[in-house]
Amino acid sequence: MNILILGGGGREHALAWNIKERGQGKHELFIAPGNPGTAQCGTNIDIAITDFEELGKFCIDNKIEMVIAGPEEPLVKGAWDYFQKDQLKHIHFIGPSQFGAQLEGSKAFAKAFMHRHDIPTAAYKEFSAEQFEEGVNYLKAHSLPIVLKADGLAGGKGVVICETHADAIMEFEAMLVQAKFGDASKTVVVEQFLDGIEMSVFILTDGKEYVLLPEAKDYKRIGETDTGLNTGGMGAVSPVPFASEEFMEKVTRKIIKPTVAGLENESINYTGFVFIGLIKVNNEPYVIEYNCRMGDPETEVVMPRLKNDLAELCLAAAQHTLSDIKIETDDRSAATVVAVSGGYPGNFEKGYAISFPLLRRVGGGYYFPGRYKRKRW
Ligand code: AMP
Ligand code: GLY
């Protein structure tokens, strides 16, 4: 198959790596815009992920049969919808419709969806600027800490956990009145704080059937020993030690199945990944968030453990044959660590090259080439 992956991060490298390795050369891969990692798996294409017109032209010119969206931005901006045009609709597009992508793009949409389908999540209430006074009174009576969430996409910074009522009111005002996150905080969700341990669950669905991919846990704090500011994720592991069979059975019954049934009942066009961010409280799972894509850095530990060819899985989703698929998982553990520019997640400079000697596989281990040749890694 000729496949185009959208994105240029570690996640897209992991997706491309799986397709190249597990597909054993069956697929021709293109990645827009890609990175030096993805260049080892296919051909990088210099087109922006939101330039739908150029992407569409590229797909026609290069006989692309499948597009896999890595990040949420093109999905929330309607990439799937664009690919429903006559001349593009023969291409299997892996990612939900713009409407379905609201599961990630709007916290209020996601909370209302969970509410409609009885999916366990933190209690909440949403407020717009016209309801500012009502919101302040609600906050004053709220138990501490209080979780405030900008409704829209805010680059991973839209969630603030406030330890005092004064902080919560200040933050609420900054979001709603001073538009701290622009349009993204025109609506604010106020949520009950859940105290527990988090993990990430991933499914690939056609909006009716689904397959469960290996689970993962990312570590969000910038500092050693889980301290400091939250980031997009400084590393991840898979499997997750506390995701026992019993717990995962609860996750399937109380969260995954009602989520997929909800998509089906509401006739939401959704062929793609659902990343469910969970928190385990007293051995019960609650949804913290939905994402309409795979996670980063989680994908970097999920893909090495997935023995199936991801392209075949995506094709099965597009052709509604997921129920014929058996997911095969490598029992071994995977871990990934993220290297970031100094200052992250505050102010930092972008554009540095990451140089890292390529690891060469020799016998049962990985070795650095050159002077590290004899050192097993
Ligand atoms: P989100 O963008 O919704 O995933 O939130 C980012 C992070 O904020 C999560 O990974 C959690 O660590 C934290 N968080 C979000 N909602 C809650 C909540 N209701 N209770 C406790 N922590 C939360
Ligand atoms: N690692 C969290 C995310 O991808 O949203």
Describe the fold and architecture.
- This protein is an alpha+beta fold and 377 residues long.
- The chain folds into three domains: 2-98, 3-Layer(aba) Sandwich (Rossmann fold), CATH 3.40.50; 123-192, 2-Layer Sandwich (Dna Ligase, domain 1), CATH 3.30.1490; 197-337, 2-Layer Sandwich (D-amino Acid Aminotransferase, Chain A, domain 1), CATH 3.30.470.
- The chain is 27% helix and 27% strand.
- The chain has helices spanning 10-22, 52-61, 73-76, 79-82, 102-105, 107-116, 132-140, 165-176, 245-265, 299-305, 310-318; strands at residues 2-7, 28-33, 43-44, 66-69, 92-94, 124-128, 146-150, 159-162, 187-192, 197-205, 210-212, 217-223, 227-238, 272-281, 284-291, 334-337, 360-362, 365-367.
- Strand 10 (197-205) and strand 11 form a beta hairpin.
- The protein is globular, with a radius of gyration of 21 Å.
- Residues 370-377 have low confidence and may be disordered.
- Bound molecules: adenosine monophosphate (AMP) and glycine (GLY).
- Residues 122, 147, 149, 159, 191, 193-194, 198, 277, 288-289 line the site of adenosine monophosphate.
- One of its GO terms (molecular function) is phosphoribosylamine-glycine ligase activity.
- Residues 111-319 form the ATP-grasp domain.
- This is Phosphoribosylamine--glycine ligase.
- It is an enzyme of class 6 (ligase).
